[in-house]
Design a protein that fits this description.
With about 190 residues, the protein is mainly α. The protein is built from five helices and two strands, in the order ααββααα. The protein has a domain of about 120 residues.
């Protein structure tokens, strides 16, 4: 039995050829690498908006209200209600729109209009999410822990959108700084 080695001699039984072999796992790893680069390329504010928005949407499936129902002589019962009422549905729709907007504008190669201030649109949607969440908590009787977590997550969405908006304002209003050149005055008399 003869043992063939590669060009560097370190891997026996490996045949090196000049023709390239397409390996599907390498192509998949490259795709995952590009996706990871896009996620890493997002700003901190965008990451916060995506994470808090996704968690806020998920929190709507938990119990947001504990209603005590009195049946008189028969006793009382507690009815557990999730976050899917009218306000919760509106909140979910705005959260879906907000997270989708952030992903499309910042994480994909889709060309969007440069005339639109996307950071301001994102901030307006985030503030409306916070307003709807606050309105839902104020109108719901006997709010449960998930409603307060949802309120904190909505505040996180506003924080992330505010970070992106302030970063865009800083870069838009930053004036180029000129170096002042000092004239050297010779002291030759």
């Amino acid at each position: 039995m003869s043992s063939k080695t590669s060009q560097n001699g370190r891997f026996p039984n490996t045949v090196c050829s000049d023709e390239s072999v397409q390996d599907p796992s390498l192509e998949e790893a490259t795709t995952r690498g590009r996706s990871r680069e896009r996620i890493d390329g997002l700003s901190t504010g965008s990451k916060i908006v995506i994470a808090c928005g996704t968690l806020l949407f998920s929190s709507l499936f938990f119990v947001w209200q504990n209603l005590e129902i009195d049946f008189g002589q028969a006793g009382t019962a507690t009815q557990h209600l999730d976050g899917w009422d009218v306000w919760g549905l509106l909140m979910a729709l705005v959260v879906i729109a907000l997270v989708s907007l952030v992903v499309v504008v910042r994480a994909t190669d889709v060309e969007v209009s440069e005339d639109v201030d996307w950071e301001l649109v994102t901030l307006a949607l985030a503030v409306s999410v916070l307003g709807l969440t606050l309105l839902k908590n104020l109108t719901d009787a006997d709010s449960a822990w998930a409603s307060y977590v949802g309120l904190a997550l909505a505040a996180g969405v506003v924080l992330g959108a505010g970070l992106d908006w302030s970063r865009s304002r800083d870069s838009a209003w930053a004036l180029p700084r000129r170096r002042r050149s000092r004239r050297r005055v010779s002291r030759a008399a």
